[in-house]
């Protein structure tokens, strides 16, 4: 294996020679047992040729010992070998340093393979580099995986950009579904507060003029987020407006909406709704609650909070024979405010470990009963952020309502 030199051998007795030979054979067997390619090149001969290659090197490259020994290992290189890596090797050898590079090398049959080559200098007792040990590892599969991973990441980035663009477009369309201005009437005024989350949500509200003296006010929440929820919101908007047109019964409008949605929604999707109709001529508010949070009347004249609730199942989840909806009426007074909202505020309050929160929420409504509808909605919004110690809500924050104008 190693060229020890004849003069050195002559100075050894037979026992020492046998011991050294045994050690040499042991080292050679150990090197050949490795699956990695192992080479030794000498720095004391012209062109720094290889003086040893192990079995792993032969299997990796297809070159025999006779093919390789006596040659500089550059014979493994080809036209596509990265010359920057080759230059890095040369610079390390020039300085007598260790180095690791990845090279595109070629087998005896011309097949390319990626070689992770690590070279380590061997110094004599005077500190002079006499040999280099090289370790060759076939990383072709690893490089292939890395390329595939980079391509996959690029495709994923493109996909994410496309999804973001589609979500932004869906958000724009969803906002177009929401009213930008409300009907005008001398006896009632409407207002809303909608603060969307980053992702497209499923909140929806509307105010529709049913006749000269009757107005429908709806708030709804479709399960989920993202594009699926947005698509369901689009469908809900169309279905509800068609169902509510011409109907003065909230129960009938909600029931017809359920009938038209059922069977056209994914199996796990549903809608919660609260629909009310206000008759300005009589001052009567008719309402139906369908799986949605209860509404509130903030009565300014008597400083009381009146919850609004009815029996009602989810919308779109069950057939017409399986659902149960009802409606109630309440006589509104001058200065009354109706407040309908989605569950964003309730989700925050439910997470607050404080038995007084519900009472504080009602107190908040009363404290702001003298303020405008818009100011009341803003106070509710800030109250939720404060209770949850938040900078923004994790869901769409939606409130819509009406106020009976004082004469």
Question: Can you give a write-up of this model?
Answer:
- It contains eleven helices and 15 strands.
- It is α+β, with helices and mostly antiparallel strands.
- The protein folds into three domains: 34-138, Beta-Lactamase; 144-176; 178-404, 4-Layer Sandwich (Phosphatase 2c, domain 1).
- The strands form three sheets. A five-stranded antiparallel beta sheet has the order 2-1-5-4-3, sandwiched between helices.
- Mean pLDDT is 86; it is low at 1-12.
Strand content of the residues, in percent? 25-35%
- CA-to-CA gap between the ends? 110 Å
Task: Kindly state the number of beta strands.
Answer: 15
- The value of Rg in angstroms is 40 Å
Q: What's the CATH H-level superfamily name of the largest domain?
A: PPM-type phosphatase domain
Largest sheet geometry: 5 strands, antiparallel
Q: SSE order in H/E notation?
A: HHEEHHHEEEHEEEHHEEEEEEHHHE
**Continuous helix count:** 11
Class of secondary structure makeup: alpha+beta
The residue-averaged pLDDT reads 86
CATH architectural type of the largest domain = 4-Layer Sandwich
Strand order of the largest sheet: 2-1-5-4-3
CATH class of the largest domain: Alpha Beta
Shape: rod-shaped
Poorly predicted runs are: 1-12
Helix content: 25-40%
Number of domains: 3
């Amino acid at each position: 294996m190693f060229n020890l030199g004849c003069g050195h051998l002559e100075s050894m007795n037979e026992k020492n020679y046998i011991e050294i030979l045994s050690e040499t054979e042991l080292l050679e067997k150990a090197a050949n047992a490795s699956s990695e390619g192992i080479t030794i090149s000498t720095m004391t001969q012209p062109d720094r040729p290889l003086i040893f290659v192990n079995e792993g090197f032969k299997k990796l490259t297809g070159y025999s010992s006779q093919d390789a020994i006596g040659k500089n290992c550059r014979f493994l290189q080809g036209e596509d070998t990265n010359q920057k890596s080759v230059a890095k090797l040369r610079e390390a050898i020039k300085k007598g340093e260790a180095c690791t590079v990845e090279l595109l090398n070629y087998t005896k049959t011309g097949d390319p393979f990626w070689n992770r080559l690590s070279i380590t200098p061997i110094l004599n007792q005077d500190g002079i580099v006499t040999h280099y040990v090289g370790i060759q590892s076939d990383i072709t599969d690893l490089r292939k995986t890395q390329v595939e991973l980079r391509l996959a990441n690029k495709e994923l980035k493109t996909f994410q950009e496309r999804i973001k663009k589609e979500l932004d477009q869906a958000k724009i369309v969803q906002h177009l579904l929401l009213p930008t201005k409300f009907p005008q009437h001398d006896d009632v005024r409407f207002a809303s507060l909608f603060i969307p989350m980053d992702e497209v949500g499923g909140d929806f509200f509307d105010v529709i003029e049913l006749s000269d003296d009757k107005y429908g006010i709806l708030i709804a929440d479709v399960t989920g987020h993202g594009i699926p929820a947005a698509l369901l919101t689009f469908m809900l908007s169309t279905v509800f407006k068609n169902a509510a047109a011409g109907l003065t019964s909230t129960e009938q409008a909600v029931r017809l909406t359920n009938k038209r949605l059922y069977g056209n929604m994914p199996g796990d999707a549903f809608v919660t709704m609260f629909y009310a109709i206000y008759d300005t001529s009589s001052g009567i508010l008719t309402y139906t609650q369908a799986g949605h949070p209860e509404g509130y009347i903030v009565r300014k004249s008597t400083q009381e909070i009146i919850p609004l609730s009815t029996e009602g199942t989810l919308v779109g989840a069950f057939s017409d024979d399986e659902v149960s909806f009802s409606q109630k009426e309440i006589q509104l007074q001058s200065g009354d405010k109706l407040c309908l909202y989605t569950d964003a505020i309730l989700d925050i309050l439910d997470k607050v470990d404080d038995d007084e929160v519900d009472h504080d929420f009602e107190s908040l409504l009363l404290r702001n009963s003298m303020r405008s509808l818009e100011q009341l909605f803003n106070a509710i919004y800030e109250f939720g952020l404060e209770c949850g110690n938040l900078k923004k809500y994790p869901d769409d924050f939606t409130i819509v309502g009406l106020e009976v104008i004082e004469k």
